[in-house]
Amino acid sequence: MRNYFIAGNWKMHKTTGEAVELAKALVEDLKDGKNKYMIAPPFTALDAVSKVVKGTNVMLGAQNMSTEEQGAHTGEVSVLMLKDLGVQIVILGHSERRHIYKEDDAMINKKVRLALKHGLEVDLCIGELLEEREAGKAEAVCERQLREGLAGVTAEEMKLVTIAYEPVWAIGTGKTATPDDAETIHYYCRSVLADMYGKEVADSVVIQYGGSMKAENAKALLEKPDIDGGLIGGASLKVETFSPIAKFNS
Ligand code: PGA
């Protein structure tokens, strides 16, 4: 029913030459892989990596985009520019965008709708802070981020949407949510999606886990019924650490 979707978020790593080298190695290593794959290099390497992944089973992702199509927005990158480079999917609402760059749900929603309007797939990241988890608010935070991030998005457009649940306290810290803790939130998020769009749509939406996912813990997480993939940061920067996750089921 749902295909596993394993994605690499390279964040602010890799010069163009390094990015091309890694992309080439991954394309070769994953060519017989049976899951859906995406790599998201920094903006500066998108053009070069686009040429490497074109026509392969590895999708090209971007890590962010502007709320606007074009205009006086110094330093921003628009959806039109991403499409022009062959980008197929864009990560939006990553916790580093939310917390370091103060992007709120309304801004993220504007980006989500703009990407979908232009036919790009969206990987919408949600997830609670440690203090929110400790206060028993993890579900409520994720629900708000889902409802506000997806406001105005139609059931039809949901075919282009992936959700990534990334508890902020697990990102880049080496701390992973236990498979059971992650499954609890994934299951809850799917019930929120069912309330918003109906069960059929909710059952078809891929919900990835992100936060210190690595070869050693991927299988136990991905075997949970509502965990359909991974959004991987640190472990996506080398073939030796990304491929075993990408091929966990082969
Ligand atoms: P991490 O990052 O795998 O390094 O924890 C995940 C992410 O931020 O998407």
Automatic annotation (TrEMBL):
HAMAP family: TIM_B
Keyword Isomerase: yes
Active-site residues (renumbered): 94 (electrophile), 166 (proton acceptor)
Gene coding for it: tpiA
Residues annotated as binding substrate: 9-11, 172, 212, 233-234
Entry keyword set: Cytoplasm, Gluconeogenesis, Glycolysis, Isomerase
Transcription regulation is among the record's keywords: no
Family listed: Belongs to the triosephosphate isomerase family.
Pathway: Carbohydrate biosynthesis; gluconeogenesis; Carbohydrate degradation; glycolysis; D-glyceraldehyde 3-phosphate from glycerone phosphate: step 1/1
Assembly, per entry: Homodimer.
Biological process (GO), any one: glycerol catabolic process
Chain's role: Involved in the gluconeogenesis. Catalyzes stereospecifically the conversion of dihydroxyacetone phosphate (DHAP) to D-glyceraldehyde-3-phosphate (G3P).
Taxonomy, superkingdom: Bacteria
PANTHER family per UniProt: TRIOSEPHOSPHATE ISOMERASE
GO cellular component: cytosol
Subcellular location: Cytoplasm
EC number of the protein: 5.3.1.1
Broad class of the protein's primary localization: cytoplasm
MF GO annotations: triose-phosphate isomerase activity
Pfam families in the record: TIM (PF00121)
The protein's name in its UniProt record: Triosephosphate isomerase
Organism: Candidatus Gallitreponema excrementavium
Reaction catalyzed: D-glyceraldehyde 3-phosphate = dihydroxyacetone phosphate
